[in-house]
Amino acid sequence: MKNIKLTAISTTVFERDHALLTGDGFVNSVYPGWTDCEVNVVINEAMGADFCQLLVTPEKNGILKGQNIETQIFFYVVEGSTTLQLDGGQTETLTKGSYAYIPVGKSYLFNGFEPNTQILTFHKKYELLEGYSAPDIVVSHESKIDQTIYCDDPNLLMQNLLPDQENMAFDMAINIFTYNPGANLPFVETHIMEHGLMYLQGQGIYRLADKWYPVRKGDCIWMAPYCPQWFGALGTEPAIYIYYKNVNRFPIQP
Hints:
By secondary structure, this protein is mainly β. The chain has strands at 13-14, 18-21, 29-31, 34-43, 52-67, 71-79, 81-86, 91-95, 98-102, 107-111, 118-125, 138-141, 148-150, 153-160, 172-179, 195-201, 203-208, 211-216, 220-223, 229-234, 239-246. 0% of the residues lie in helices and 52% in strands. The strands form three sheets. Strands 3, 4, 5, 6, 7, 8, 9, 10, 11 and 12 form a ten-stranded antiparallel β-sheet that branches. The chain has an eight-stranded antiparallel β-sheet with strand order 1-2-19-16-21-15-14-13, with no helix packed on it. The chain has a three-stranded antiparallel β-sheet with strand order 18-17-20, with no helix packed on it. A hairpin with a 2-residue loop joins strand 17 and strand 18 (211-216).
């Protein structure tokens, strides 16, 4: 009998109201306009979510090209650098920590990727609000966004990459949450907002529903509405994650 090598080991977990996605089971997907790149669908409507989260690893000659019709996309450069061409011929250079929000009705073209570039994206169908137009394109870098103290704890720091609280036209928020070593959420959150996130640095323990998971850099999490959630940072460096949530719309159509 031939020796059988067992490789069916994964730390990914999928539950009714949450998922921990550690990348050990990702399989490449192919999409129109996105060529010469590896695309991993991390979160999608197929699992019960109302948004989509992708992790893209382009080759040097890769291209990400599209025209947003019903869906808005947020691009965040996890590693490396790229060139972004926008409507009207505007060109931007995006490096690690840069991001671009492309609203409905706008096009984009990414190319000129540095080796080992990795891009995180969040996609959501846009909900138009009466009296407001769709937001404009946003291109910036996380270093330009002030950190604010969360829940009166100076060891919990928040950055709002999109101006959702200042502009009701936005129906999605993207934040970066930093936990200094040993910091933790002050209570178990239970709310209507849905989350998708990716760890950029550090490690810790995440409670999702009634289960507890060790998490670290590179791990992704999906949290359905009302999934109880709590996090505590471990180790000697800050734990940092970037996350999506839906905002600024009534929970039921008036």
